[in-house]
Amino acid sequence: MFRPLTGKLHELQDKYPERIRRLESIFDTPTIVYIDFGNVYRWQAKLGWHIDLKRLKHLFDGFETIREVKFYNGTLTGDANSEKIIKDAGEYGYTVITKPVKWMKLEIDVTGIPADSPEVLKRFISASLIRKFNLDTIVYLNERLRELNRQGIVHIDELKCNFDVEIGRDIYLDHRDRKAETYVLWSGDSDFVDPIRHLLEDGKKVVLFATVRRVAKELSELRSAGLQLFDIQKLREFICWPRENR
C-alpha cells in the first residue's frame, strides 16, 4: 500500500493511479533497492530530464515494504557538486556507499607504431569491435590520434569508479541474511547477470529499473527466467527536478 508523504505525491497518485498500482505490485514484499548512481546519472542525457534524489526518496518512503535504499556513487574529492551529491543522499536517508573517484591516464601515443596497428586503439575500443573494422578504418583512427600527438597530447585523463563488486557483494549478503524477498536494481550493467540469476533461481523477485536501450542484452535475456523490467520514464513526474515537470 502506498502512503504519499507529500501533497505533490497525493496529487500524482490521483493523476496516475495505474503507475502507483504497478509500483505497489512490485513492492508487495520486503524490498531492498540498489541504485548504481554512476550508471543512472548517465541516463539523464538520454532521458532529457534529471532525477531529483529528494523526490525519489520521498516516493520510496511511501512504501512501508521498502526496508532500505542503497546509494552507490563515487566521490570526486574537491569537486563541490560531487561532494554535495554524497552529502545530500545521506541527509535524505539513503544508505550511502562511496569511494574516491580515480583519475586514469590513458596513453594515446601512436608514435613509432605501424599506421594499421590496432595496439593503441585496443585501450579504448573492445577487441571484438576492432575486428569488425577494415584496415582503412584503423589507419584513419590512428591518423586522428597522430594529429593529437603532434599537438603534444599523448595521453588523456579518464575518471574511473564503479561499484559492480560492492553491489554484487551486498546483494549476496542481503540474500544470505534473508533481508528481502524483492530486489530492485537501478542499473543496466551486464556485470549483474550472475547475482540476479542466483536470486531468480532461489525464487526471489528481481526488478530492474532502467530506461529503454540502456539495458545490457545479457540482462534482458533473463526476462525469460523471471526478471522484470520497469521503465523509469513512467516515473518522470514523480522524481524529476520540479522545474522539469510537465
Tag the structure with descriptive keywords.
Rossmann fold; elongated; 246 residues; alpha/beta; two-stranded antiparallel sheet
A few lines on this structure:
This protein is an alpha/beta fold and 246 residues long. The chain has helices at residues 7-15, 17-26, 37-47, 53-61, 80-92, 127-130, 135-150, 164-176, 193-201, 217-220, 236-239, and strands spanning 31-36, 66-72, 95-97, 102-107, 155-160, 182-186, 205-210, 228-231. The strands form two sheets. Strands 3-2-1-6-7-8 form a six-stranded parallel sheet, sandwiched between helices. The protein has a two-stranded antiparallel ribbon with strand order 4-5.
Q: What is the fold's blueprint, element by element?
A:
Elements: H1 7-15, H2 17-26, E1 31-36, H3 37-47, H4 53-61, E2 66-72, H5 80-92, E3 95-97, E4 102-107, H6 127-130, H7 135-150, E5 155-160, H8 164-176, E6 182-186, H9 193-201, E7 205-210, H10 217-220, E8 228-231, H11 236-239
What do the pLDDT scores average to?
Answer: 92
Largest sheet: 6 strands, parallel
Distance between the termini: 26 Å
Calculate Rg over CA atoms.
21 Å
CATH architecture assignment of the domain at 162-230: 3-Layer(aba) Sandwich
Range of helix content = 40-55%
Number of helices: 11
Number of strands: 8
> What is the fold-level CATH name, i.e. the topology of the domain at 162-230?
Rossmann fold
Category by helix and strand content: alpha/beta
Major beta sheet, strand line-up: 3-2-1-6-7-8
CATH class of the domain at 162-230: Alpha Beta
H-E string: HHEHHEHEEHHEHEHEHEH
| Residue windows where pLDDT falls under 50 for at least 5 positions | none
Determine the CATH superfamily of the domain at 162-230.
Answer: 5'-nuclease
Q: What is the overall silhouette?
A: elongated
Strand content: 15-25%
